[in-house]
Amino acid sequence: MSWNFEWKPDLSVQMNAIQEKIKDRTTKALLQAGYKIQGDAKRFAPVDTGHLRAFIGIRFENDIVYVGTNLSYAKYVEYGTGIYAEGGQGRKTPWYWETDSGKYAGGHWTWGQNPQPFLRPAFIMNREWIKEHIAKAIAKGI
Fold this sequence. Notes:
Elements: H1 11-44, H2 51-54, E1 57-61, E2 64-68, H3 74-79, E3 95-99, E4 106-110, H4 119-141
Antiparallel strand pairs: 1-2, 3-4
Helix pairs in contact: 1-4
């Protein structure tokens, strides 16, 4: 008498395992992409006091990686201000501003500042690498 036994796991169990593996690998790839963009954004950020560079970070939430900063002036550095703002979105007349401290202490007239993009170039230069990196992560999970 012979016994022949073959065990085949339920297909849904196999599919769930593959799906989890892909999700884990994709999450890791997304975080790696975020850190890569963060590093390049820090390299591209103009430095005056160093706060902007220091506050560029990443956050992972609901399968989305956010790279950026919560400093209120960062958007003005990225897009410019006044007559120099991208897309003509800035103020068209000069303005006066004052501060009591730091190297800019005193009053100043300005027409604005030129854009000094740092986040967008960091993303653009890494876009193809990110696509390939995530595709490889998915392929390894299958």
